[in-house]
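> example.struct
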């Protein structure tokens, strides 16, 4: 290889790595919010190199599939160790990292729950009607993302490394698809999955994860979010297969239900599709009902 070409290649790699390591830090919800661009983020990806067409409209790559932002929230008082529990949340259609932070209060809910865990929000299709998971639909891609995320968290906490101890995957609406591919292909220690009105398909991938020993799958669903019939059909399939499940309900004016530690939880709610994450602090409720997640020690 000519020396000038090799030099340009090395310069390109070095520049890319420096960009990947650039982290914007800010106080947030009683903790620290790290905003970084990672080369292992879902996008850009070959699957959307030409953008995406939906319902007669084109969503170009430059506007909707170029953002490699990943938000990492470390709650105040986080107790450092040689590993950490991570909650990775995937947003749905017409959303972005910024809109998730301002609308659904996930860092605030993690802080309120008092759990010693780190929240991760990767940028998916940005403000687009699309469930595609980009690079994360490929084998090994989620492990690579978590390696980069754990490095960024470790640098902030002055640690050499902070690999995942256990993982929770959380998804709202269209976030179901990327989660299903991760479950199918990843060897990461994924202990729980929470879908907030998001079981639109990929049922076999979720069923296979349960059969392989996934500890708990929580399915919040509404009457009008488009998941009602699919969710109940999945419940009937689990019954036929002999897999354990529990059904719970929550309505306005009632306390949120007590949740079992394992199996599949079918949680029906009278809330609307865009309210299931935060209107009654459901995300925080799930965190509190995670017995294996460590609580932060009170000072």
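> example.seq
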């Amino acid at each position: 290889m000519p020396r000038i070409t090799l030099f340009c290649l090395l310069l390109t790699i070095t520049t890319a790595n420096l960009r990947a390591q650039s982290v914007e830090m800010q106080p947030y919800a009683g903790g620290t919010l790290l905003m970084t661009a990672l080369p292992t983020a879902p996008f850009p990806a070959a699957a959307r190199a030409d953008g995406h067409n939906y319902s007669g409209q084109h969503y170009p790559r430059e506007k909707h599939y170029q953002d490699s932002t990943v938000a990492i929230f470390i709650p105040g008082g986080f107790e450092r160790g040689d590993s950490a529990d991570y909650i990775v949340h995937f947003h749905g259609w017409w959303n972005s990292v910024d809109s998730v932070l301002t609308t659904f209060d996930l860092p605030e809910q993690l802080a309120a729950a008092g759990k010693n865990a780190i929240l991760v929000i990767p940028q998916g299709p940005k403000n687009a009607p699309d469930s595609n998971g980009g690079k994360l639909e490929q084998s090994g891609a989620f492990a690579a993302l978590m390696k980069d995320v754990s490095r960024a968290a470790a640098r902030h906490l002055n640690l050499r490394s902070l690999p995942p101890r256990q993982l929770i995957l959380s998804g709202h609406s269209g976030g179901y698809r990327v989660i299903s591919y991760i479950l199918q292909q990843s060897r990461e220690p994924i202990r729980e999955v929470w879908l907030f009105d998001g079981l639109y398909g990929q049922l076999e991938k979720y069923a296979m994860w349960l059969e392989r020993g996934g500890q708990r799958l929580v399915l919040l669903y509404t009457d009008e979010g488009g998941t009602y019939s699919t969710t109940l059909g999945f419940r009937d399939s689990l019954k036929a297969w002999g897999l354990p499940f529990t059904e719970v309900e929550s309505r306005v004016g009632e306390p949120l239900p007590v949740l079992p530690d394992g199996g599949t939880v079918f949680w029906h709610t009278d809330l609307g599709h865009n309210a299931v994450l935060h209107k009654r602090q459901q995300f925080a409720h799930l965190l509190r009902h995670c017995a294996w997640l460590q609580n932060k020690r009170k000072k």
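> remarks
The first strand starts at residue 23 and ends at 28.
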